[in-house]
Amino acid sequence: MRKFRTTGDPQLQGNAALGASLGLSRRQVMAAAAAGLAVPVLATATASPAAARPLVVPSKRGIILYSVRDAISRDPLTSDLPSGFREVLRELSRIGYKQIEFAGFRQNANAEGGDVNNVAGARLLKSWLDEYGLDAQGNHGSVPATVTPETTAAFETTMDVAQTLGLEHIGTGSDPTRSRYRADWDAAAEVWQHWGAMAKARGLKLYTHNHQQAYNFLLDAGPLDEAGLPTRSTGTRMLEYFLQITDPTLVYLELDVFWAHVAQHSFPTYTAEDGTLVRKVFDPAALVAANRSRYPLFHAKDGDATGEAEGVGNGYAIVPFGLGDIDYATFFSRIGSEIRGGDLNAMWEQDTAPSATAPAQSLELAKLSYRNLSRLR
């Protein structure tokens, strides 16, 4: 597992006060880099030239704007910090990011462009993306749960915006369903394939982004309860079943690497039909490797192991990328050697990057996390 060279570095030791002001632990003090201080480097063993190539090529290093949502919504009339889409996109481009994933299209009303949550606003956003050399990959929007004339019209508008921005993918940050019953996943798959076919007809890929709940086990076996529903499991995880029953050319997924690792702690066992407790720890890299074409996008979110007992809580706390215990170098390598050809779209995300007391923090951590993402070998 990778570690940073911090021991004995007087400059890093001197950054403790800044780390505290950002609400970061000693392990996270590297956020000081964005304030102009030295950035520790990833400790790496001597490697062959081939192995030394970056796992995430420069053109594929991205960010979901949820990580800097405070800056997007900041009022430029009350702050000198980057505010609104244009200023934030310019700053992200300066840092080095090349790919953008939107988390909706709302910004502060006083920011340049005002209300851009419409097709005309998308044209303005596209002009800024082009100006700063950025490529928009996707958006966490809304995928309707039902098919009606109204939801169809709304989805058509969603695709209009996506095509105006030049997106390759459209999706949502929600699971197709939170139910643990097979019939509900069958129904969700039917709806998703409907929208996926519409998206494909317009050159788009429809994707779902999932948290740990989607990796729980289906209740699809055993004695029935009073409502006639199964109470035990065959050991099939909900999202694995969704992959099995959906067309791989119509429905895609975005793996949040952090939440997939949390699922290892949350759902390590299931109760089989005969009542026995079966241990089956989730292996997210194996799932992706077996379904590589289904995963065009990834959230690169790091986690610090919390030391909680297995099966209790998340098992990880969200931290800036590169400061945690998720072995990204191994994970990205395991999902397929073709990523060295540049097909790995890695979007940095840190839910906790914004701070109510340190308004510059999210963009500081964006700089830090970009540098650490770029050092993956």
TrEMBL record:
Alphabetic keyword roster: Isomerase
InterPro entries to which the protein is assigned, alphabetical: IolE/XylAMocC-like (IPR050312), TAT_signal (IPR006311), Xyl_isomerase-like_sf (IPR036237), Xyl_isomerase-like_TIM-brl (IPR013022)
Keyword Translocase: no
GO function term, MF aspect, one: isomerase activity
Residues of the Xylose isomerase-like TIM barrel domain: 90-335
The name this protein goes by in its record: Sugar phosphate isomerase/epimerase
Species classification: Bacteria, Bacillati, Actinomycetota, Actinomycetes, Kineosporiales
